[in-house]
Design brief:
Blueprint: E1 2-6, H1 11-16, H2 21-30, E2 35-37, H3 40-45, H4 47-59, E3 63-64, E4 67-68, H5 78-98, E5 102-104, H6 116-134, E6 140-144, H7 156-166, E7 170-175, H8 176-181, H9 186-193, E8 197-202, E9 205-207, E10 216-217, E11 223-226, H10 236-245, E12 251-254, H11 261-278
Parallel strand pairs: 1-2, 1-12, 2-3, 4-5, 5-6, 6-7, 7-8, 8-12
Antiparallel strand pairs: 9-11, 10-11
Amino acid sequence: MKLSCMLFTFHSELKEGAYSPADLVSKLHGAGVRAVEPMLRNLEDAPELWADVMAAANDAGMVYSCLDIGANLIGEGDADRVAALDTVKQGLDLCAELDCTVGLIPGSRPAPGMSNDEGRKIYSEQLGKAAELAAPYGISVCIEDFGVIPDFVCHSSHVLQVVSDAGPEVMVAWDNGNFLLADEWPVDAWPPLRDRTVHVHIKDWVPAPEGSDAGIVTPAGKRWVGSHIGQGQAQVAECLKLMHADGYDGWVSLEVSMRPADDAAVIGAQYLLEVAASL
């Protein structure tokens, strides 16, 4: 398994001084992580801190599996959409510097008063433009099943609709846990998106305690909260078996939600590598 780790989950703890950039990278590398997935917004928020993280990753021989560019490609009008594509271009420039071949563009949502159907149409059009920007770089742009707005582009059917309408160059970062937020079992979401998948995120969820207002509520009214990877209901092992059977050979990136995040990453890495070794 080519094991990566999303880095945004460590941002607040790094800023608080819970551990140093060098210690974080050493811990991830010791757990078997060989690539990292930084977030553009974090790099802009604390550039010196993240320069230290990336220097440590480079020293450890790690590579960059994906850059989380992040942009609301829909916005509320043409000016917002042009600005979003400018952000994409900035992210693509950084991808080129990092020798990173995948750029993830999460964060789009319908404008107030806009229907989901109209939002998906504009989203697809904008993604097509993003793919045109990415072509000279040789970088794949992709979207994920975005769980923050689970009734928009989170169910596999909506993800497939958007990337299909955007064109063959727009791909998918397949996130097992987010499908639960659209009331879809992750194992059911793998087959329809397999051929468009260039990157994978793995997380885990459990049902929220009765009466809790934590987590995210699905369209059907179920509330999920994060758990350690391998200890929830997001079908992590089953998903890894499906990916293995289909010959997926891209990066699998940990997305941890528990704290402290560095310890949670070790727990998640150990679980994924144990499952992978059994396949």
